[in-house]
Write a structure and sequence with these properties.
- This protein has helices spanning 8-17, 25-36, 40-56, 73-76, 91-100, 127-135, 150-163, 188-196, 201-207; strands at 58-59, 66-67, 81-88, 105-109, 141-144, 169-172, 199-200.
- It is α/β, with parallel strands linked by helices.
- The chain has two domains: 8-56, RecR Domain 1 (Helicase, Ruva Protein, domain 3); 69-207, Dna Topoisomerase Vi A Subunit, Chain: A, domain 2, CATH 3.40.1360.10.
- The strands form two sheets. A five-stranded mixed beta sheet has the order 4-3-5-6-7. Strands 1-2 form a two-stranded antiparallel sheet.
- α7 (150-163) links the parallel β5 (141-144) and β6 (169-172).
- The mean pLDDT is 89.
């Protein structure tokens, strides 16, 4: 059922909000009407924060994490173990793992996972920059921390095959994370234990034969 709007400005704002994932037209309308009830200064600050986000947000030169600076706080932290790299799909996974407070290494954000049905291949991910990082010879362990979906497992296997020649330790999360789960929906205790109890990736291959 289409909504008849009394204002073109209102309709335009609702259409913009409804472009967000999981936000339908009715929810978008409620959000816009909520904004209109706020002080003008608060609405302006909200708008400014979105514009500032668009213009000033950066992606870490080292790990591709979202950052306010060229190098993110994690990569800049000398107390972290820079020889251990946790490979994740996206920024949300970095946040999820950091919330466990169980991981003290650094990250590499792929920006997605291999999914032929969606037209996403290895060249669409940040695998080459990871390859360059590994080739420098300072990395001792790669942790494959991708979602336990078919696409995540496919990407894990691709990365294992690509990097096993470097003679570095390649591990994956312990299966406390259920098959089919995405990391952002896994509780912190389970995810933390899965990191601490990670296993060699080649062992998981043997288990699946």
């Amino acid at each position: 059922m289409n909504i008849n709007y009394p204002s073109k400005l209102l309709e335009t704002a609702v259409n913009e909000f409804s472009r967000f994932p999981g936000i339908g037209e009715k929810t978008a309308l409620r959000l816009v009407l909520y904004l209109l009830r706020q002080d003008k200064e608060e609405i302006i600050n909200f708008g400014k924060s979105i514009i500032q986000l668009s213009e000033e947000i950066k992606y870490c030169r080292t790990c591709q994490n979202i950052s306010d600076t060229e190098i993110c706080n994690i990569c800049n932290d000398s107390s972290r173990d820079h020889s251990t790299v946790c490979i994740v799909e996206n920024i949300k996974d970095v946040i999820s793992i950091e919330n466990t407070q169980q991981y003290k290494g650094v990250y590499h954000v792929l920006g997605g996972i291999i999914s032929p049905i969606d037209g996403i291949g290895p060249n669409d991910l940040t695998i080459e920059s990871l390859n360059k990082k590994i080739s420098e010879g300072n990395i001792k362990e790669l942790i494959l921390a991708l979602s336990t979906t078919l696409e995540g497992d496919t990407t894990n296997f691709y990365l294992y095959k690509k990097f096993k020649q470097h003679k570095i330790r390649i591990t994956t999360l312990a299966r406390g994370v259920s098959v089919g789960d995405e990391l952002e929906y896994t509780d912190e205790i389970t995810l933390g234990r899965s990191i601490l109890n990670r296993t060699l990736f080649e062992v998981t291959l043997s288990d699946n034969k």
